[in-house]
Specification:
Blueprint: H1 31-40, E1 59-70, H2 78-84, E2 93-108, E3 111-124, E4 132-145, E5 149-161, E6 174-189, E7 192-205, E8 215-227, E9 233-244, E10 248-250, E11 253-255, E12 259-271, E13 276-289, E14 297-308, E15 314-325, E16 335-347, E17 352-365, E18 375-391, E19 394-407, E20 414-426
Antiparallel strand pairs: 1-2, 1-20, 2-3, 3-4, 4-5, 5-6, 6-7, 7-8, 8-9, 9-12, 10-11, 12-13, 13-14, 14-15, 15-16, 16-17, 17-18, 18-19, 19-20
Length: 427
């Protein structure tokens, strides 16, 4: 699904199944600087929520409201939509999400501290059983000791409604995500750097039918990087992860879903020119389960990005990927995802910015299937947003989205259209 890559302060992906409500934008710098950040500051692994601070701001409270409409909220196929029009669970709906939050952004000597704490409440017009409260906490300490040793400590927590594109159930299903990271970087030489990281992630679902997908993973990472005179990076990375999932019962026999995963990848973050940047992360991934070898996989995963600042007012970002994605599905142990996306930004005036995005992804459910069927999905997503900086502290965003999934499993396919209007005010 589509995420916005410049300063999302209150993500509201819990509202619907396609993140089309995730447009609570914080352009604390001017729009042109935000566009350049989108282009050149995006993460190699994907798109992140990033808050942009104005110089001198330390504590910044904010409020936001998003009013949205979706013509296929639960991501039903055509047959299910027809049945839903006569039942108690309506397929289209409008919703209002209101949120409050506060940001702390402070330098102390060489140390930088950043916290963003927010809470939101979502109310549905026709499907009130889905009303929910969400929370999000981001904490980050960029630490530094002397001239050669630095790193970061990060904490992240989020509670939100699970997108219906991933869980087409009728019950309220909220997901809790926690991530804790420690990273250290040591400059061995002006051109060489060694990195190490420890991480713990947890994902938990409230719906009983989804709890087999609960996951806790602990990982360790070690990397060696070469830094060019222009600060471009090329390096190699090794990562080991241990995953623990709830015990599964198959034909009355309990089985462990725990696994070990090893990765060896090439990492490239290269500034080709002042306007063009290339990023690549790819290599061998090998996963082995303790008791279910039919769920093991070994293959080549890769993701590449090309960012181009076409003019002073426009930029483009192209991404291509091929990944064995062992995300938390109940019906299969992993998928093979192949796709591409294109995002374009254009600054219309000093106060108005437009962003368009298109994404195509094909997913083959290749892992050991719990339903005994071969499944293949093709997802196409499109979005268009207009961001208006009405006042220095007030941003208004209007967006249109369309999602289209074709699937070999009839009930998994859907089409949906959405529109949303977001206002955010920072004190």
């Amino acid at each position: 699904m589509v995420f916005w890559e410049f300063g999302l302060s209150i993500p509201v992906s819990g509202i619907t199944g396609s993140n089309w409500g995730s447009i609570s934008l914080r352009l604390s710098m001017n729009i042109k600087k935000a566009a350049q950040f989108v282009m050149l500051g995006g993460s190699l692994a994907g798109i992140h929520s990033t808050v942009l601070a104005m110089d001198g701001d330390v504590i910044r409270p904010y409020v936001s409201a998003t009013y949205s409409y979706d013509d296929n909220l639960r991501r039903f196929n055509n047959t299910q939509q027809a049945l839903a029009t006569t039942g108690s669970s309506k397929t289209s709906d409008t919703m209002l999400m209101t949120g409050v939050g506060i940001i702390l952004d402070k330098y102390i000597s060489q140390q930088k501290f950043y916290f963003d704490i927010s809470a939101n409440r979502t109310k549905f017009d026709r499907n009130s059983e889905l009303d929910n409260d969400g929370k999000e906490l981001t904490g980050k300490w960029d630490w530094k000791i002397g001239k050669r040793l630095d790193g970061k400590i990060e904490l992240y927590h989020k509670e939100a409604l699970v997108p219906f594109s991933d869980f087409q159930g009728l019950a309220l299903n909220q997901r809790k995500q926690d991530r804790r990271t420690f990273e250290a970087r040591w400059m061995l030489h002006p051109r060489w750097r060694v990195r190490g990281a420890l991480a713990n992630t947890e994902t938990r679902y409230s719906a009983a039918a989804q709890q087999l997908a609960n996951l806790e993973e602990n990982s360790q990472e070690l990397a060696l990087d070469y830094l060019s005179p222009s600060k471009s990076v090329i390096g190699v990375m090794y990562r080991h992860a241990r995953g623990e999932k709830p015990q599964q019962v198959i034909f009355g026999v309990p089985f462990s879903n725990d696994y070990d995963q090893n990765e060896l990848k090439l990492n490239v973050d290269w500034t080709v020119t002042g306007k063009t940047k290339i990023q690549f992360l790819g290599g061998l991934v090998d996963r082995k389960h303790d008791e279910l070898p039919q769920r093991d996989f070994r293959g080549f995963n890769a993701r590449g990005n090309v960012a181009w600042q076409a003019t002073g007012k426009s930029d483009l970002r192209l991404s291509v990927w091929r990944e064995n994605n062992a995300q938390s599905f109940v019906t299969t142990s992993y998928t093979l995802n192949r796709g591409t996306s294109l995002t374009a930004n254009y600054i219309v005036t000093g106060k108005i910015m437009m962003q368009g995005s298109a994404k195509y992804e094909k997913r083959d459910f290749e892992g050991d299937s719990a339903i005994g069927l071969t499944r293949q999905d093709t997802d196409k997503n499109f979005s268009l947003a207009v961001i208006y900086q009405a006042l220095n502290d007030l941003k208004i965003t209007a967006s249109l989205t369309r999602s289209d999934r074709d699937s070999s499993i009839q009930q998994a396919g859907f089409k949906s259209n959405g529109i949303s209007l977001t206002g955010m005010y920072e004190f």
